[in-house]
Fold this protein.
Amino acid sequence: MDTFFTPVSGFDLPRFAGVPTFMRLPHLGLDHPRIAEVQVGLIGAPWDGGTTNRPGPRHGPRQLRDASTMIRAQNGVTGIRPFEMVRCADLGDVGPNPADLMDTLARMEAFYTTLRGKGIIPLTAGGDHLCSLPILRALAKDRPLGMIHFDSHTDLFHSYFGGTMYTHGTPFRRAVEEGLLDPHRVTQIGIRGSAYDSEDRDFARAVGIRVIPIEEFHQRGPEDVMAEARDRAGAGETYVSYDIDFVDPAYAPGTGTPEVGGPTSWQALQVAMGLRGVKIAGADLVEVSPPFDPSGGTAFLGVSIMFEMLCAMAEGMGT
């Protein structure tokens, strides 16, 4: 039996030992002889050049990798064993240029374009939320995608500081403008907090994006909300973007722009479980900022969410 793509078990090597890779999977470069066999690639995007408040998500992928050594082979709720259903590997980090935002966007787009050419579905650990834009540019070159977006912010603003077009508050405005997303298949869940104005929500209404604010989420519950999100996504390819600040800061303090009143850690996992049945073209978990939670609890929640997304991806690919 070929066990090359099987994660190292904690029964064979203690979880605090060995080189930490995402979920203890093999690490492969894009030139590795077995790269063509990979179906889902786990990737780090250590870059926060779009951050406008508290910095630190550039350090997220490293902490997330370390925390991910606690992930085991089987989903405790659904019983899914994703590593037996699809071949997964840690494909390393996208190397950013921390001194040049536009160059980093180009580097990331090129990296994910290569992955798409190899037929690899990416599961990315950010990084700030601007990382989603170059990924979408690579994955949606020939057709717009739907999107299910978990966040406390819409990230639909036109610009910041008098005309800066690329920040972690603008990626999905750019994605709609560039034809990367079909707004009628986009659902944003968990939006809350005080606001500068209503520009972002006005844009959402104008183009047909469905915004589910936190008060509606709490009233309806995760299962009902996710049923609507799946219905809007339909049978077409859909991107999943998960900002850790979707979760209440009592459970995930390690992020740059926290907003109170959010979901619990259990609800955070429930919505990810609710992705079952979605045709996922790629997914990300962003905005984990280790300086604000050195204990690693936020990161462990983040990789637990990534595991739920991976289970949904694996189940969909296996049907």
